[in-house]
């Protein structure tokens, strides 16, 4: 793949983007890096409140002309990143792959690095130990540009993009686990019962990987749709943190609604697609993450459920 070296002018990219008044916890600065590189510097917290600010900044950095060859997100000032922020990074990664733009996260703080490790997304992103230096101003007279050469692209950027459901569910589960360890969940008896029932039903819909992979595609799809129904019904019967968790889990799994397991002509399929085996496995892993999280939410004060594997979730 050949990428042409283009970069926005220093005057354009060095301007500080004013934080959204509704989300004062995050500020964004866009700078010019080496030729063809755009650097986005984040300071503050990336959570559900500031996610819209982060989304707008990432989209603008990718899409405003001239498009960069490389977008580096400098996380050295990012004090905290929740699953909402991670989801924006994942969404931007997919957009960057489609636009043939190389995306890298640089200078991760310990909490951000820990979140990526817990959710398994540290292997999805290209990660740099430090951000590139800011480019010096362009000389008054431009020298002839040498012929463009191919820019090496990391394997992650050319791998199948998938839907990222497993990563999103893992990030959501990690955030819930942190809250339970910090005693920030206050479930009523009815809420705890609903969470336990939902976890049980999710386990009944999606079994171990070896069992699922042996099923025909149409049955795997049926089970995933049942899992979505379980989450949706649970959301309708509760409020507060549990409702927000279940609704976010439902959103993470919504790509399943666009899947089909039967062959059909395009004009008869209403835009649905036949998922790959990797996409099936990704969605099923998402259900397993959610089941484990719900179980730990209700058993935090009573010890770990012996029927479930101990999750690798620790304090960030």
Brief overview:
This protein has 316 residues and is α/β, with parallel strands linked by helices. The protein has helices at 10-13, 51-63, 83-98, 110-119, 155-158, 165-181, 189-205, 209-213, 217-236, 240-253, 277-299; strands at 16-17, 26-32, 37-46, 70-81, 102-106, 126-128. Helices cover 45% and strands 12% of the residues.
What does the model show?
There is one protein chain. By secondary structure, this protein is an alpha/beta fold. 45% of the residues lie in helices and 12% in strands. It is built from 11 helices and 6 strands. It has helices spanning 10-13, 51-63, 83-98, 110-119, 155-158, 165-181, 189-205, 209-213, 217-236, 240-253, 277-299, and strands at residues 16-17, 26-32, 37-46, 70-81, 102-106, 126-128. A 6-stranded mixed sheet has the order 1-2-3-4-5-6. The chain is globular, with a radius of gyration of 22 Å.
Query: The biggest beta sheet, please?
Result: 6 strands, mixed
pLDDT averaged residue by residue: 78
Rg calc:
22 Å
DSSP strand content: 5-15%
**Which class best fits the helix and strand makeup?**
alpha/beta
Please tally the β strands and state the result: 6
Low-confidence segments, given as residue ranges, are 1-23, 136-146, 148-163, 301-316
Distance between the termini: 37 Å
Walk across the major sheet and give the strand order. Answer: 1-2-3-4-5-6
User: What is the share of helical residues?
Assistant: 40-55%
Compressed to H and E, one letter per element, the order equals HEEEHEHEHEHHHHHHH
Shape: globular
| Total number of helices | 11
């Amino acid at each position: 793949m050949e990428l042409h070296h283009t970069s926005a002018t220093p005057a354009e990219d060095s301007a500080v983007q004013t934080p959204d008044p509704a989300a004062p916890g995050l500020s964004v600065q866009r700078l010019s890096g080496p030729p063809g590189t755009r650097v986005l510097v984040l300071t503050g917290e990336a959570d559900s409140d500031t996610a819209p600010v982060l989304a707008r900044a990432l989209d603008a950095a990718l899409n405003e002309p001239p498009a960069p060859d490389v977008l580096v997100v400098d996380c050295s000032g990012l004090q905290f990143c929740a699953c909402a922020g991670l989801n924006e990074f994942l969404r931007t990664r997919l957009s960057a792959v489609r636009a043939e733009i190389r995306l890298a996260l640089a200078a991760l703080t310990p909490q951000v690095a820990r979140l990526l490790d817990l959710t398994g997304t540290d292997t999805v992103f290209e990660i740099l130990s430090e951000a590139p230096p800011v480019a010096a101003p362009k000389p008054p007279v431009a020298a002839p540009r040498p012929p463009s050469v191919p820019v090496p692209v990391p394997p992650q950027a050319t791998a199948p993009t998938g839907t990222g459901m497993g990563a999103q569910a893992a990030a959501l589960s990690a955030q819930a686990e942190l809250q339970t360890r910090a005693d920030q969940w206050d479930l009523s008896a009815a809420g705890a019962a609903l969470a336990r029932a939902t976890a049980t039903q999710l386990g009944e819909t999606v079994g171990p990987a070896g069992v699922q992979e042996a099923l025909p595609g149409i049955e795997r799809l049926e089970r995933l749709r049942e899992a979505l129904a379980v989450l949706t019904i649970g959301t309708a019967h509760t409020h507060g943190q549990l409702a927000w968790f279940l609704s976010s889990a439902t959103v993470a799994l919504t790509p399943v609604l666009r899947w089909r397991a039967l062959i059909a002509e395009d004009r008869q399929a209403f835009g649905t697609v036949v998922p790959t085996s990797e996409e099936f496995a990704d969605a099923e892993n998402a259900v397993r993450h959610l089941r484990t999280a719900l179980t730990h939410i209700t058993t935090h004060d009573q010890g770990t459920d012996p029927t479930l594997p101990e999750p690798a979730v620790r304090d960030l």
